[in-house]
Design goal:
Layout (H helix, E strand, L loop, with lengths): L3 E5 L3 H12 L3 E5 L3 H10 L16 E3 L2 H5 L4 E4 L6 H9 L7 E4 L12 H8 L8 E5 L4 H4 L5 E7 L2 H11 L4 E6 L2 H23 L4 H21 L10 H12 L4 H10 L4 H7 L5 H15 L5 H11 L4 H9 L10
Parallel strand pairs: 1-2, 1-4, 2-3, 4-5, 5-6, 7-8
Antiparallel strand pairs: 6-7
Helix pairs in contact: 4-5, 8-9, 8-10, 8-11, 8-13, 13-14, 14-15
């Protein structure tokens, strides 16, 4: 059964999903908030800087009018940066939506409220839409999805039947979707791994070895589990696609924006300059601020996150951060 789907956000992820879902016969509308960018996309049917080589079929409608994009849509896919989700949700709340299923794709935690994305959406959208909210996460670089490279992700929500409907609608032969009942864990996994990915990039920039990176991912996962359990997530969720799966991909992939930021910092560049030169958003930078605050609030030991925070926002020397991690007192390998 083919559906009418609105994809909010015409960055690399939005375009990749639009092309993929169009090829499955769905009716796709792509929303780009910037009018100039919208006009360029309509003219060129491609975004050479964000997703080179991915041609947007003429059948995919592109608009900068949010009400037009969402009109009569059965699914809303939010392919926007996490720090813009609240703003867009406020605009959606003013539109007379036709009970669409909502799929959040952003991986982040708000800086001021420390809210996960589903919490942001429930705080802004009408109550009758809350049960329709889901989050889709996992190792899924847009560059590979646009090339039909096999990709597997997970969807979680407040209502299992809604998650299953999202799964059934979006799944295809190269984009496999599992469901998960742990919405907190799925959202935290997708967010926390970006902090560790920045640390991984720092290791690359400092030319450290595989031993270092293997240890970083393992101990980073331990931090993710510790905080996740404290916030109500299930430990086993972090062994899944939105946890370990996304962590591995983001820490090693050349497509990873968060790993890239870390790598540039490891090479001696300043954060402001790195972010200014980037075309796309590295979610992990803002998320590091949020995760650091949460770890302090709930008194959860997260030494890697703390060092990333010091390097990003307190100008700490990256190599000194590595030294301080390695020189901590001897401990038992505790996961919980």
């Amino acid at each position: 059964m083919r559906s009418k789907i609105a994809i909010l956000g015409a960055g690399s992820w939005g375009i990749a999903l639009g092309v993929m879902l169009n090829s499955e016969g769905h009716r796709i509308t792509l929303w780009e908030f910037d009018q100039k960018e919208m006009i360029k996309l309509n003219t060129k049917r491609e975004h050479p800087k964000k997703l080179p080589g991915a041609k947007i079929p003429q059948r995919v409608k592109i608009t900068d009018d949010l009400e037009e994009a969402t009109f009569d849509s059965e699914f809303l896919l939010l392919a926007i940066p996490s720090h813009t989700v609240r703003e867009v949700a406020k605009k959606l709340a003013k539109i007379n939506l036709n009970q669409p299923l909502i799929v959040n794709l952003a991986k982040g935690i708000e800086n001021k409220t420390l809210c996960r994305m589903s919490e942001v959406l429930t705080s802004e959208l009408p109550k009758n839409l809350h049960k329709n909210i889901t989050t889709l996460s996992g190792p899924s670089h847009a560059e590979e999805v646009s090339k039909k490279i096999p990709t597997t992700v997970v969807v979680a929500g407040f209502d299992e039947k809604v998650a299953q409907k999202v799964q059934k609608t979006l799944i295809n032969l190269y984009f496999r979707i599992y469901t998960n009942s742990d919405l907190i864990g799925v959202e935290l996994g997708g967010s926390l791994k970006n902090v560790i990915a920045i640390a991984s990039g720092i290791c690359d920039g400092l030319n450290l070895g595989d031993n270092t990176k293997g240890a970083l991912l393992t101990r980073g996962l331990a931090e993710m589990i510790r905080l996740g359990e404290k916030l109500g997530a299930k430990a086993q969720t972090f062994a899944g696609l939105s946890g370990m799966g996304d962590l591995i991909t983001t820490c090693f992939s050349p497509y990873s924006r968060n790993r890239f930021v870390g790598e540039q910092i490891g090479k001696g560049r300043k954060l402001k300059k790195i972010l200014k030169d980037m075309v796309m958003v590295a979610e992990g930078v803002k998320t590091t601020l949020s995760v650091y605050k949460i770890s302090k609030k709930f008194k959860v030991e997260m030494p890697i996150t703390e060092e990333v925070h010091l390097v990003l926002f307190k100008n700490k020397d990256p190599m000194k951060g590595v030294y301080d991690l390695m020189s901590r007192g001897p401990k038992s390998e505790i996961w919980g």
